[in-house]
Design brief:
Elements lengths: L2 E5 L4 H12 L3 E6 L7 H11 L5 E5 L5 H7 L6 E4 L6 H6 L1 H21 L4 E7 L23 H20 L3 E6 L2 E2 L8 H11 L2 E4 L6 E2 L2 E2 H12 L5 E6 L5 E2 H12 L4 E4 L15 H7 L7 H14 L5
């Protein structure tokens, strides 16, 4: 039976991978501080869903707090999945100090705790944002990532550097996963697909930045869970891997797709690009395929259909 610690386990990706592992019989401990970046009620609902499994334990605490981390590591873990972070490009520009504090100092505490009670392997969340405005597409792990255009992206690049140093010093395998815009049931409500769906459903005007010309590589949550599980079952030392769908869609076409699925017309307010936003994200997933057997299945049409079905059936629409 595998013992798994998930930091940020009450969040969107954290609760999804936690439930997948619990269904397979693993014991899972979640640590989350239930902050108010979005409605904490949603995170508590995720924990309630996970608490139906006998192998689940939830710890409420902050990764910046050393005592909390010591409390977590009273347990021995086979795998640590570090997802806890302040998320979002645009908010990081408004409050960079908070992002540096949580994403860098908090990550140090997680790694420091791992050095004292070593797991067999660590998986850490990075982000496609580290590529910045890379002109070469699709983005490949070997591309330079030295020019982040937001504090959030800078913290994720720093996390990758910290991870390599940790591996070099302690020889504990660690894989940094560059997620490409994850969506699906229980998605954070401020993210584009959830936000657009709600606003179209309610007849509210949608702010469409860069006049809808930005392109994103949207990745369905089941494919991310699949990717994390393939990494969990593969041997590695230090690695960085893209987890994306390897297809792109513009914001305008995404909105058209949601309109068609909902059966409602969007009211669009076209606006210039926002500071910190990149023009395109597009994952080269050759490394993930060949090394880990990653094989995403859900294209954007099917993913939007699944998400809207969940949205319409969910008891609390946020």
């Amino acid at each position: 039976m595998t013992q798994v610690l998930i930091t940020g386990g009450a969040g969107f990706i954290g609760s999804a991978i936690a439930e997948a592992r619990l269904k397979k019989g693993d014991n899972v401990v979640s640590i989350d501080n239930f902050n108010d970046f979005y409605d904490p009620t949603l995170k508590h609902q995720n924990i309630k869903r996970l608490s139906t499994y006998s192998g689940f334990k939830s710890i409420e605490g902050d990764i910046r707090d050393i005592e909390t981390m010591n409390e977590c590591f009273k347990y021995s873990f086979d795998i640590v999945i570090h997802l806890a972070a302040m998320a979002g490009v645009r908010p990081s520009i408004d409050d960079p100090r908070l992002y540096y504090d949580v994403n860098i100092n908090g990550t140090f505490n997680v790694l420091d705790a791992c050095s004292k009670n070593p797991p067999s392997k660590i998986i850490m969340a990075s982000s496609s944002s580290v590529y910045g405005n890379n002109e070469k597409v699709p983005f490949q792990e070997s591309d330079g990532v030295d020019f982040p255009i937001s504090p959030y992206a800078a913290t994720k690049k720093m996390n990758e550097v910290m991870a390599y140093n940790f591996y070099h010093l302690h020889n504990i395998p660690i894989c940094c996963c560059r997620f490409f815009t994850v969506y699906g049931p229980y998605q954070r409500p401020e993210m584009a697909i959830h936000k657009f769906t709600k606003m179209i459903d309610h007849g509210e005007p949608i702010p469409v930045f860069n006049h809808g010309e930005c392109e994103r590589d949207y990745t369905y949550i089941d494919d991310i869970v699949h990717g994390l599980e393939t990494i969990m079952s593969t041997q590695y030392g230090y690695d960085v891997v893209n987890l994306g769908e390897s297809q792109t869609i513009s914001t305008n076409k995404l909105i058209n797709l949601i309109e068609g699925t909902l059966g409602k017309k969007a009211i669009k307010t076209l606006m210039p690009a926002q500071t910190g936003d990149v023009q395109i994200t597009f994952a080269n997933i050759d490394h993930a395929r060949s090394t880990y057997g990653y094989d995403p299945k859900t294209n954007i049409d099917d993913g939007i259909s699944k998400f809207v079905e969940w949205y319409q059936s969910h008891s609390i629409k946020v």
